[in-house]
Every structure is written in structure tokens, then in C-alpha cells.
């Protein structure tokens, strides 16, 4: 399950659901580094949690990410998966070497695998940013706060998740939202007017994006997959039709903030 755009999901519900249907819980935390649920960092609730350090995320190692798990076997298998399926980085490699004496342990393959090994350069970038993560997250809060004040002039645009804005800078475990982007919802629900808003943002050099996939079932990739729709997906459709994201970079420029102010004042006239 995914913690979307910094917003930690309700893990009590998720755990209950997984127990009920006998499911393994894996958390995708790629958009929510630094976010907690009831004071516990996300990614620690199930078998494993994944994190992305691709740019536009909270820290950036150019490409790459991390997976956390307390399961030693999974950790070992992941180390094989990321490197061709061989045993070199496994803590239990001696067992395999002993069992397959005929094979060269440097080239002993126990599974299919990929080549997604992180480099020293990626790690150095990530580790140095990790030390400043709280600073970045606090800066992102400040940017969201600033943008929320600008949007008071056009309250038809609602910041999704604003009520989870973190006001407690000292207690980082209280953070239940680590803003990655700023998702906005146009509450008037008029498509022509919504499209005008996007145009105004573009004219003012403010990049907008759909809120991730909007509603994934509308995408052609889904045509190739078997799936069942459980209900009307009315919330996903609302987000698909009337939602968009803008950035909330910790070092946003004054020029960008002024462009946003201008765009918002133009939106008032649509
Ligand atoms: C929820 C989610 N999962 C996975 C990914 C993929 O991460 P990566 O690009 O590091 O593979 C992303 C990327 O933005 C994401 O937002």
C-alpha cells in the first residue's frame, strides 16, 4: 500500500484489512520519507517498506532508493535481486558456498536478478542529505504554510492534506505528513473553469501535474491487466477531474512565490 505524497496512511486500518484477508503488508513509502503514523516511521508496519531517492523526492541520489525490513531472509534475497541473483552480499552466503562446492562462490546464482546496485556516489549524496532531512521537511512545511496563505485569496482551490501540516518542530515523531508536492483540488467542479486555471498557471510559468495517475483505471496500461472495480471510485474520479499538483521545494524562490501570487489573483476572474 502507498503513503501518498507525504501523507501517512491509517496503518490501524491497513493492518486490520491485511489480517482479515490474510495478506502480506508491504508499504510503498517512496513519496513520504520522514512521515509517521502514531509516532512510528512508516515502512515499519509490515514485512517491508520501500523508499525512492529519485529527484523530486525528499532526498535525491539522482536515482535509487532503499528498502527496509526486519526479515533477514528477505533482506538477503533483496541483496541477490539487486545484483544479478548472486550471493556475494548475502549474510548467509557461506551456507550456499558450502552446499554448492562445485560452483565458484563469486559467481553463484540463487535467483533471477537485476542490476540495480547503488554506487558509492549515490550513497554519499544520500547520507549527507539524510542528516539534514528534518531541516528540509520543516522548510517544506513553511513553504506549504506560505502557499496556503496565498490561496486564501482563492479559496476554491483547496490544499489536500492541509490539516496534517506539522506545527511541532521538536517532536519529529509527531510528523504525519512530509510534503512532497502540493496537491490542490478545485472545489467548484467545473471542468472548463478547471482547465482555465491550469492555463493560468502555465502562463505564469508554474508547472502543474495531475495528482499522480488521477484515477489509474483510466490509463491504457490497465487495459492489459485483469482487475475488479469494487465501487464507483468517486473520490479518485474527483481527483482525476479537478485535482492537480504544484511543487513545494524547500528552496523555492521568491520569484516563484510571486508568480503564484499573480496566478492566484488571475484565477479570481475566471
Ligand atoms: C509511490 C511511488 N512508488 C514508487 C516510485 C518509483 O520510485 P523510483 O523512481 O525511485 O523507482 C515512485 C516515484 O515517484 C512513487 O511515487
Overall SS class: alpha+beta
> What string, H for helix and E for strand, traces the elements in order?
HEEEEEHHHHEEHHEH
| Count of runs of 4 or more consecutive helical residues | 8
Rg, rounded, reads 22 Å
Number of domains: 2
Residues in β-strands, percent: 5-15%
Low-confidence stretches: none
Shape: elongated
Percent helix among the residues? 25-40%
| Count of β-strands | 8
| CATH fold descriptor of the largest domain | Aspartate Aminotransferase, domain 1
The CATH architecture of the largest domain is: Alpha-Beta Complex
Distance between the termini: 38 Å
Overall pLDDT:
96
CATH homologous superfamily placement of the largest domain: Aspartate Aminotransferase, domain 1
Order of adjacent strands in the largest pleated sheet: 1-4-5
Q: List bound small molecules.
A: pyridoxal-5'-phosphate
Largest sheet: 3 strands, mixed
The CATH class of the largest domain, by name, is Alpha Beta
Description of the structure:
The protein is of the alpha+beta class and 270 residues long. The protein is built from eight helices and eight strands. β2 and β3 form a beta hairpin. The two termini are 38 Å apart. The model has no long low-confidence stretch (mean pLDDT 96). The structure holds pyridoxal-5'-phosphate (PLP). The site of pyridoxal-5'-phosphate (PLP) has 7 residues, from loops.
